[in-house]
Structures are given as C-alpha cells and as structure tokens.
Design brief:
The complex is a heterodimer of chains A (291) and B (177). With 291 residues, chain A is an alpha+beta fold. Chain A is 34% helix and 25% strand. In chain A, the strands form 4 sheets. Chain A has a 5-stranded antiparallel sheet. In chain A, strands 11-12-13-14 form a 4-stranded antiparallel sheet, sandwiched between helices. A 3-stranded parallel sheet of chain A has the order 1-3-2, covered by helices on one side. Chain A is globular, with a radius of gyration of 19 Å. In chain B, α2 crosses α5. Classes of the chains: A alpha+beta (291), B alpha/beta (177). Chains A and B meet through β1, α2, β3 and α6 of A and β5 and α3 of B.
C-alpha cells in the first residue's frame, strides 16, 4: 500500500516548519515518528496535501527536569522515554506506559509529541498526561502558548491546536515528596491498543493523606478521559479499600466505551473499575516508597 | 559524499519527489524518489533488495524490519525520504566475506526458521536487541522481539537462535553488526 501523494518538506528550524504549516492552511500535517500517521495515510484515513517532517530539526528530543517541571521534547522517542532513569525512578507512570505502547520496534520511531497529540483514543500517553496534570506548550506564527492536557482533546483525532501550531514541549509538574503514579494497560496482544487502560497519580502528605490525585482512562471514549470525579473524590482520603472501591466506581461511570471487537460495553466498564482500583493502589504503594 | 550507485536523476522538479542519499549495506546510493515511497518499496523495487519482506503492510508483523543507523525500524511504516542521509542495513548486508553473521549462524544451527518468511526481520530485530543487551534472558528476548510475528509459531527455536548468537558474539567481540 502506498500513501496518497503529498508535498514533502523537511525544514531545518521550527520557525520554518511553522511557516510551512501556516502557508498550507490546514492542509498540512506534521510528520514526527510517523508510526500512526503513515499507516493512516496508507489506509486513506488521512490524506494531507503536505507533510512537514520535523525529524531534521535539532534540539526537539530531550528529557529535562528543572525546579518546576519535567520537560519533554516532542521528538523524544518512546523508547528513549522508557530508557530514561529520571522517568523510571521519578515518573514511573511514563515508564509503565512507554513499555506498553505498540511494540519495541515501533517505539524506536514513535514520539512523545506524536503519541500525545495524535488524538487516537487508544494512544496511551494522553491518559498519563491527564493523571499528571501535564500541560503542552504549542508554538505558532504569533508565539507560544500553554494548554492544559485536560482541555487539549476535543474529539477523536481533533485537538485545540490551530493548523499552524506545533506542540513544542510537554510540561509535567515536578515530582515531589510523596508522589507516586502508575499506568496499567489491558490488551489482547502485544502491539494492540488497550481494551482499557488506566493512569493514576497521587501525592501524599506526611500523614499519608492524599493531597493531589489524577486518574486518566485510555480507549474507553472518543478521546482519553480525565476521570474528574474519581480524582477529586480521592483528595483528603488515605486510600483505604473502601476509598479505592468508590474511586473505581466513579471512574467506571466516567468511561464512555463502545462495543467493538475488544469487548462489549459492560465488560470494558468493569475493566475500568478493576484496573482503576489496582492502578491507584499501585500509585499509592509507590508514593509510600514501594516500587 | 562519494556515490557508488547513481540512478537516473529525475528532471521533474516538485515537492512530491526528492533526491535522497542513503547508504544501504555499505553502498552509497543517490536516488530520486516519490515522497510517498515507503522505505520497504525503495529497498525492494528500486534497489532490488528483496530479502526485506512485506508481511502485514500495517506495522504489526515486523517482517519488513531493517536497521536504520543501527536501530530496528519497520520499513513498511517509514518513508524512504525519512532515511535521507542515514545508514540502512538489510538481511543482504549481514554476511561478510562469505561468513554468516552470528545471528544468521544461530538461526541455522538452532533451526530458528520454518517457512523463513519472518526470518530477515526477525534477525535484524535480534541484532538490534543484542546491540542494546548483549546477554539477554529468555524473557528479554521474547519481549525484545515482540514486534515480530512468526506465523509458523517457531518461537522456541528463535529464542535459542538469539541465545546462540549472544554467546557467539561475546566469544568473538568483533562478530557484531
């Protein structure tokens, strides 16, 4: 299968890339790792008139922690995220997720920015970004702006980026004392999208009370879902079995699964319940110093 | 760079074609390709390197796996223009001076193939795995090769083949790719 014909550009700078996107007025797509986009083009699910390949632009791949944020460059490959010590030890939700996205070979090209912004409800990073309350920095011709991940996705494959904007950095609040998180993905086989997957993040105070909580759900709705009620419910709790049960019920209510070859609605909703309970428990264990 | 093989240059100047420089199995090529040409089509149809197989054509099966700058990639899911300026290694480049690569030797000795269709991709993925992890456990081999499917289901011997190669490559440090 060949993708449909398109004009190809390989700019050397971000400014040049934005200029090309601006010039094509919504007819161009950014090509990062290409691991979702090229397949969609082969199947004619996407037919952009032009591709702006950002792989030649230097300094877009990095993982850096400063005083405020963990900053991830958009061209960071999924396998580099998985191999990072900072990620594994301080942001294990991203270590979990990056080990479950597609398969190891696809992860060599697939990127953080691509997985985060592509908008397939089966992409694993958006739910993690919801859990962590990440924000995305986007740059367009008129400058840059910051968008909370939780308000970035509008529908499947549709986000709030203007056609001439590029996602330039992911900001994740710096992990502090008492922070713990995890991602669990239930899949039929390696490389598949999730039947259901859950990302959970908690921060505990010195008494073991939850001060911050975030729960994100993958592939049980038109976009990844931020389970707001479940997250808010956990704040002020200590994570007793009854707390986890209630949060799991609220997360299951937030899910909007459809029946497909990964299972019927009731099953998927039940899996959200089961995996929310387990994933929040794992996040709590990690927050208390476990692995 | 010096060019070993130059294809007839296109006289058409358009953004939908592009001239790329790519080194494949040590041979430097300059080719003008359609931007939409997939890497696997470039290798098979333009360079006539048909050892790289097309299996599912949807980036699931791994039959088309090649190394790009030493790192495994599914060549049905990359555009040829994306490897401009890079090094590509295919199964045809594994044997050197009439001597099989240790991974090829492993697949032979341990009967790591039945129909052989997945084998080129399986071997390239194995080389990528061993370059990052020279002494993998069985579990690490199975996870490392999880992007490559063998529909004969001969995974047990594939694992043995990789273990054979790992041992061989550690005995002869220069045996790697």
């Amino acid at each position: 299968m060949y993708p449909p014909a398109f004009d190809y550009y390989a700019p050397a700078t971000l400014e040049e890339a934005i200029g090309l996107l601006d010039q094509h007025q919504g007819e161009a797509k950014v090509l990062a790792g290409g691991q979702s986009l090229i397949g969609m083009m082969k199947l004619r699910l996407a037919q952009p008139a032009a591709l702006v390949d950002i792989n030649r632009i230097p300094n877009l791949a990095y993982i850096r922690e400063d005083g405020t944020f963990l900053r991830i460059g958009p061209l960071t490959r999924i396998n580099d995220l998985h191999a990072s010590d900072v990620i594994r030890t301080r942001y294990p939700i991203l270590y979990d997720a990056s080990g479950e996205i597609a398969d190891p070979t696809v992860r060599n090209w697939g990127t953080v920015g691509g997985n985060a912004s592509h908008g397939d409800p089966g992409n694993d990073l958006p739910a993690c970004m919801f859990a962590l309350n990440a924000e995305y920095q986007a740059q367009g011709p008129k400058g840059s702006r910051t968008i909370p991940a939780r308000s970035f996705y509008q529908d499947s494959f549709t986000n709030v980026l203007a056609p001439n904007e590029v996602l330039t950095e992911v900001h994740i609040p710096k992990a502090g004392k008492g922070s713990g998180n995890a991602y669990s993905k239930m899949e039929r086989k390696v490389g598949d999208f999730a039947i259901a997957a859950v990302g959970a993040h908690v921060v505990l105070d010195a008494n073991g009370t939850i001060t911050t909580a975030g729960i994100g759900l993958t592939n049980v709705g038109p976009t990844a879902i931020y389970a707001a009620k479940a997250s808010e419910y956990l704040v002020g709790k200590t994570g007793t079995p009854a707390d986890l049960d209630r949060a799991a019920d609220l997360a299951a209510e937030a899910a909007q699964p459809i029946a497909d070859n990964r299972g019927p609605v009731e099953f998927k909703r039940e899996m959200v319940r089961v995996w929310t309970r387990r994933t929040v428990r794992r996040a709590l264990e990690r927050a208390k110093g476990g692995s | 760079m010096a060019i070993d093989v130059e294809e007839a240059a296109s006289t058409v100047s358009s953004n939908s074609t592009r001239t790329i420089h790519v080194t494949v199995n040590g041979v430097r090529h300059r080719s003008t390709v359609d931007a939409r040409m997939l890497l696997v089509s470039y290798l098979r149809e333009r360079l006539r390197l048909t050892g790289t197989h097309i299996g599912c054509d949807t980036a699931h099966c791994g039959a088309c796996t090649v190394l790009v700058d030493g790192v495994p990639a599914k060549s049905c899911n990359l555009l040829a223009v994306m490897v401009d300026g890079r090094n590509v290694l295919t199964v045809e480049g594994l044997e050197t001076g009439g001597k099989l690569h240790p991974v090829q030797e492993g697949f032979t000795k341990e009967h790591g193939l039945q129909c052989g269709y997945c084998t080129p991709g399986m071997m390239l993925a194995s080389i990528g795995l061993l370059s990052k992890n020279p002494n993998p456990t069985e579990d690490e081999i199975r996870r490392g090769l999880s992007g490559n499917l063998c529909r004969c289901t001969g995974y047990v011997n594939i694992v043995k083949a990789v273990q054979y190669a790992a041992k061989k490559m550690q005995e002869t440090p220069k045996g790697g790719a």
